[in-house]
Amino acid sequence: MTTTLPPSTDNSALQDAANRHLFVGMTNPAQLAEEGGPLVMDSAEGVYVTAMDGKKYIDGISGMYFRNAGHGREEIARAVYEQLSRISMNVYAGATPATIQLAAKLAEITPGDLTRTFFCQGGSEANESSLKMAQAYHMRRGDKGRYKVISRKGSYHGSTYGTMWLGGHPGFPRTDYQPRPANVVTVPGPHAYRCEFGSSSPEECGELSAKAIEEAILFEGPESVSAVIGEPVSQPLGGVIPPSNYWPLVREICDRYGVVLIFDEVITGFGRLGEWFGADFVGVTPDIMSFAKGITSGYFPVGGSIATAEIADVFSGGPDKTWSHMYTYSAHPGGAAAALANLAIVEREGLVDNARARGEQLAERLAEMKEKHPMVGDVRGAGLIQGIEFVADRKTKQHFDPSLKVNARLTEKLIARGVWIRVPAYIVPIAPPLVITADELDELATAIDESLGEVEKELGV
Ligand SMILES: Cc1ncc(COP(=O)(O)O)c(C=O)c1O
Q1: Are 89 and 207 part of one and the same domain?
Q2: Cα–ligand 1 centroid distance for 156 (angstroms)
Q3: What is the DSSP string of 369-426?
Q4: Angle between helices 202-220 and 246-257 (to 10 degrees)
Q5: Is residue 11 part of a domain?
Q6: Which of 299, 320, 348 marks a domain boundary?
Q7: Is the domain of 58 the same as that of 191?
Q8: Mind listing the pLDDT tens digit for each residue in 133-147?
Q9: Does the pTM exceed 0.85?
Q10: What atom in ligand 1 is closest to the CA of residue 234?
């Protein structure tokens, strides 16, 4: 096919070429073309991104929940440059100083006795690795029938074939991809605003949601269940904080039936909740933790799975103990250098504490919006992972008719006010970089508040 390379400074030529040649994740080329094309970004600094057409936006969800240390960090870029200039990749069965240091750093900052890390390139691969590790762990211990995985509705664990079928939420339909793997078991999530058990209090919802996991284990047969996987706080439905009794009960249940507990900390890891990890936030340590995104703030694709010594040690000993699992680019030193530089920034600038403080400020603003706007059904979250659920009727909690395109209306109003948040389904997700200042957070919250008001006016709410 003949085509011309668009000049890197020509916004409309780039958008035009993108409309013809590029898949932009989770979007549809015809729809994007109707909007002109994808937002082509030119530069970014702190919480702001500047598009090729010169417009500046607050990055309202940190790219895709990864830009913890903010945009434009030359320090991280330089660390990657220096690393790649010296040694750009491992040899087979080798390691590099940066990767070893990063593994040691993770053992230091993660809770409990999480100690040995397998590195990969992103969150889906991390969860695949964690699930494979859990199953292989049972096999090596002679527990050969454990292959089922329990996950919760409302969760998202990735896009690979295995991880895609875990959890589930309205923004990620899986109708094109059949069949559903036979080892996947799905239970309700601990979502107090819409508790599937019709419970009268968050605690009751927490208890019943944890019990649903126990019932699934007993129904499937404990000897067939390998792992329970969940995000300590899940994002797809907008910062769903589980009732405080939920994870301690799930931990007890997993221990009772010999099931491995995997935390997917791909979003919650590295400060987003105002604690280093979601595990710290909910006060429960998993057996395996998957991570990605915030470990490098997105400056290099890195993910991984860190396991307790009890799990990791079964893969050590004679040759038959080896864990047969790898990716070509596992433990990339460029990624490790990015992660070490990024974590140094998070520590030096106190970004975990900032996430907590700005999170409290955001929660106050959201509570005010709930008072003021009838379309706000619920506001929830903690730290810098929060969300608004909008509803047509507060009492029934019914959502707006999709034909009203309330999400598209809100997206348009937000973008017009210089906030880059694409609103999915019926949730406004809010997760800016952890470097956000009090003034910037006010600017973001005011834009959301005004956008809600304008949409309510249009809808006659
Ligand atoms: C909680 C969670 N787990 C896993 C993933 C998948 O990560 P990746 O897109 O890096 O494969 C994501 C991505 O958004 C996520 O939010």
Answers
A1: yes
A2: 7
A3: HHHH-TTEEEEEEETTEEEEEE-SBTTTTBPPPGGG-HHHHHHHHHHHTTEE-PPPTT
A4: 20
A5: no
A6: 348
A7: no
A8: 999 999 999 999 999
A9: yes
A10: 1
